[in-house]
Amino acid sequence: MRVRQPKQQMQQMLKASFLNKKYASELGLNRTRFDAELDAGTYAAEIKHDIQDGEIYGIDSTPTIFVNGVMLRTMSEEALRAAIDHAAASPQASASPK
Description:
- By secondary structure, this protein is mostly helical.
- The protein is built from five helices and four strands, in the order βααααβββα.
- Strands 1-2 form a two-stranded antiparallel sheet.
- A hairpin with a 2-residue loop joins strand 3 and strand 4 (70-71).
- Helix 2 (17-27) runs antiparallel to helix 3.
């Protein structure tokens, strides 16, 4: 399980291009293309939109998991299984987070 990180910390990490570039190298991405697109802000608007969506849905850390539109509050295997079981037993599925 990954460690939850506060939203402000995640935003700072997005701004720290050297970290993104370090991770890109570790992942084996095409660094020339990655660096050029990061430096040019190619996906900045999309990332900003994703952050705003997260704020709308009350997401303040990563990872955040929704099951059938309900935010999982406890990050454990047992809580995830219980949420899935509860959603499977529900008569109607939800399309958006509550």
